[in-house]
Design a protein that fits this description.
376 residues, alpha/beta, single chain, 36% helix, 19% strand
């Protein structure tokens, strides 16, 4: 009998090692990983620059409290903020979203938060309430008050709900858990304009889409907007637990001394990893590779009639299949063939390969995908 709570449905394998785009289980079987640890190990397993940065930091100091100046936090904040934002560091995406919600209410003096059906923002109380999925809420009520849910990519309901009592509108630019559903560019720009008009803040959840996943450093760069607040985690530490909330400098009074905090937030090991991740993304051809491998993946799958729709951007791709049973059968068959993939929603196969995946590795993955899906 396990001494763990059964809150995860675990696959019958234990991953023991990883290198690049591959992982190996305790039985010695190797898999091509099209999950990146659920969008976390964006730069691949054992990335040498990140390993070296962590090892060097570990030999010096692991942790200092946020009672003192932290130059490493300042370095990472500068790399992330690009001169326009202030950063707050925490340990996860849910924590980053909690901080964003708190800052929005504190800075505006308002309480109403608008989010969108199918969204996923985390499982802590504020983030869970922002998540507009009833299945995530079941058994945990009452939830945080003054949240309202609206249809995604639909302007009139937002125009009716967004008023001068609204603290923030919170959205994902690609709904990951909801089925890999991209936000429409024109709609996002209209949302941003409405927020500005009413004084509400626009929060963009970049937990999964950020750090190069969609082909740009941040997904919002492709939409021609500047959110008031955005959040990061997953790929920020390439496997180290780290999250960040970034808000425009005009919001700094909302998070004065004592307003919010985290004992482990901005931990030195996590910051060393995050700094190396930012450097690799900024100083290499990783983003160019994302675009090239995206095109290779899309070209290799478009002729399969068993796929009802292909959605996504960069290396965040969803393949809509017939139904949930077909999805489960497909994921099992892929695993048996040596490829790991994810689900999104009830019938979407989600592909999140490392951003560093090579042309040959992508071709290997396509061969497996075509063989398995072609037999459906």
């Amino acid at each position: 009998m396990s001494q763990l709570f059964p809150n995860y449905t675990r696959l019958p394998l234990e991953i023991a090692a990883g290198k690049g785009s591959y992982v190996t289980d305790t039985q010695g079987r190797t898999y091509l990983d099209f999950t990146s640890g659920i969008g976390v190990v964006n730069l691949g397993y054992g990335q040498p620059d990140i390993q070296q940065a962590m090892q060097q930091q570990a030999e010096k100091l692991w942790h200092v409290p946020n009672l003192y100046i932290n130059s490493l936090q300042e370095t990472v904040a500068e790399k992330l903020a690009k001169g326009q934002y202030l950063a707050y560091f925490c340990n996860s995406g849910a924590e980053a979203n909690e901080a964003a919600l708190k800052l929005a209410r504190k800075a505006t003096g308002r309480t109403k938060i608008l989010t969108f059906s199918g969204s996923f923002h985390g499982r802590t109380f504020g983030a869970m309430t922002a998540t507009a999925q009833e299945s995530i809420h079941q058994g945990f009520g009452p939830l945080v008050p003054d949240f309202a849910y609206l249809p995604f990519n639909d302007l009139p309901p937002l125009q009716a709900a967004l008023d001068e009592e609204t603290a923030a509108v919170m959205l994902e630019l690609i709904q990951g858990e909801g089925g890999v559903i991209p936000a429409e560019k024109e709609w996002v720009q209209q949302v941003a304009a409405l927020c500005k008009k009413t004084g509400a803040l626009l929060i963009v959840d970049e937990i999964q889409t950020g750090m190069g996943r969609t082909g740009s450093f941040y997904a919002f760069e492709q939409y021609g907007i500047e959110p008031d607040i955005f959040t990061l985690a997953k790929g920020l530490g390439n496997g180290l637990p780290v999250g960040a909330m970034l808000g425009k400098a005009t919001l700094q009074k909302g998070f004065g001394p004592g307003s919010h905090g985290s004992t482990f937030g901005g931990n030195l090991l996590a910051m060393a990893a995050a700094s190396a991740v930012c450097t690799v993304l900024s100083d290499s051809e990783v983003l160019a590779n994302v675009h090239a491998r995206h095109q290779q993946l899309m070209t290799g799958l478009t002729d399969l009639s068993q796929i009802a729709a292909i959605r996504g951007s960069g290396l965040m791709i969803g393949l809509e299949l017939k139904d949930s049973e077909t999805l489960q059968q497909t994921m099992t068959a892929l695993r048996q063939e040596g490829l790991l993939a994810l689900r999104a929603g009830s019938k979407v196969l989600r592909l999140l390969p490392p951003l560093t995946i090579t042309e040959a590795e992508m071709a290997e993955g396509l061969t497996i995908l075509r063989r398995v899906i072609g037999q459906l």
